[in-house]
């Protein structure tokens, strides 16, 4: 398995307005083309957070634990449409009420992403996609704090979780 390097992403300005398009391969090549993604942090009523484990075949951060749901916005799609699609595809959840908690630019050596951050409280069944994820589970806030900085979690998740949920 591998990511589709020809998948078409919108290229955006800092405010999210679309200014062009590029392939996944171009966006993840170190070109620093700003492209939008959606993230959803799924909390249960006990205050635990669901984290997904990224498969070893992923082109970015393979094998690490990451945000409950994270996915690229397809060209021509709104952030809201992408969020519903990604949550269904990755966790099999279709009945949830997202709350947008922020938006920021994440930068690494390989890419720049405009991240639309959401949260929800959900106690129903979670069915991680066998084709997109390497499983997942709910983590306590203490478990997350202990794992931070030790190479188990993606740097993107760590910085985002600190900014929006541990402040």
Automatic annotation (TrEMBL):
Which residues are in coiled coils?
A: none
* Name this protein carries in UniProt: NTP pyrophosphohydrolase
Superkingdom: Bacteria
Listed Pfam families = NUDIX
Keywords carried by this UniProt record = Hydrolase
Q: Which GO terms describe its molecular function?
A: hydrolase activity
Q: What is the species of this protein?
A: Xylanibacter ruminicola (Prevotella ruminicola)
InterPro entries for this protein: NUDIX_hydrolase-like_dom_sf (IPR015797), NUDIX_hydrolase_CS (IPR020084), NUDIX_hydrolase_dom (IPR000086)
Q: Residue limits of the Nudix hydrolase domain?
A: 33-167
Q: What is the lineage of its organism?
A: Bacteria, Pseudomonadati, Bacteroidota, Bacteroidia, Bacteroidales
